[in-house]
């Protein structure tokens, strides 16, 4: 990956906040819990190709910071790690993956508090912290162990000046999850590829009922930035920016994507309306599992809900299709494949660097399968898909999920995907594209006005961030 030279406004925002914020307590994160599947994990995948250093035999104690409750999976991961490395004791600390929670991480790093290994959720977090030298350069550990990062984890991994400051141990995929029973009743096959127009036809045929009993054909994700995903299918990496570094919201695809969402929800009324999601704070996971929608655009985080038949008893299995493409005859869908999300990094001031590295390397490779317990997809190229599905859904996985479709679409380790490398004004752009689209969906402004405001304000945010 080329060196990233553009500055990040996120860095300035975080550091400005840190000047006035103390170490607040973590709020709750996550939703439904799933049970652990340790037996499946034992047969997860071949051992990592790198040998453990002799330093692993030395007694050490490290802390690991993440955004899940310990009993949602991290506790089991530590137990599995200690089966191989009993002399390295790991203490888990939870923080909220929110702006406030991440300020706590930053202030702890600057203040030199006890923190050894921690998650950065999203590349913008890694970039901001790396630029401020809050992350350990991993070069010496990678070189010493001859750890081939690209062979083990992939090529499009964030680097700064050619150096790694975190290992992408988990990924996210975005897909369309479908009630297979309703699909069969409508006489529709499971799509292996489709355009927005074809997706719309499915939604029409799957919509039925009225009032409280209405089943919408589909639902977009509850986070509003998902309306831009059809554009991602064409442009992929850095889709929010044009070749000159300004915002790209005057690209024709954005108008088509926003018009599509507006029509699906406010005209055809075959997609669960965002206005209702906003007013009730509903989540697409719940809407789908409660059969209020026949299809749902979601990340693989929905797997925690699909695997939970106690809280979500049901009479259907879930199948999966890729996100639809913007155009009908599109040659490539850049929404397919894995998108790096959970970067594991080391505090440069830790007193236990060898032990911290050993834990990081284990969780990035053979231990990564346990991340499925918290709904994340391991990035490790040698992940055993069959074992991974059992960890996610249990031994009776075939009664909950269409295994063939899930492995093909969600566990797609081969497709070319997108991973952004430009973050100038990134947080501001993310907020603007949601705020202006929301006004259009609520009828406060026309779509053309929303896009014009989006473009103008985003260009200003980019200019002010440089």
UniProtKB/TrEMBL annotation:
InterPro entries: Bact_solute-bd_prot1, SBP. Gene3D superfamilies: Periplasmic binding protein-like II. Residues 1-23 form the signal peptide. Keywords: Signal, Sugar transport, Transport. It holds the Pfam family SBP_bac_1. Residues 26-49 are annotated as: Disordered. The keyword Glycoprotein does not apply. This is Multiple sugar transport system substrate-binding protein. The lineage of its organism: Bacteria, Bacillati, Bacillota, Bacilli, Bacillales.
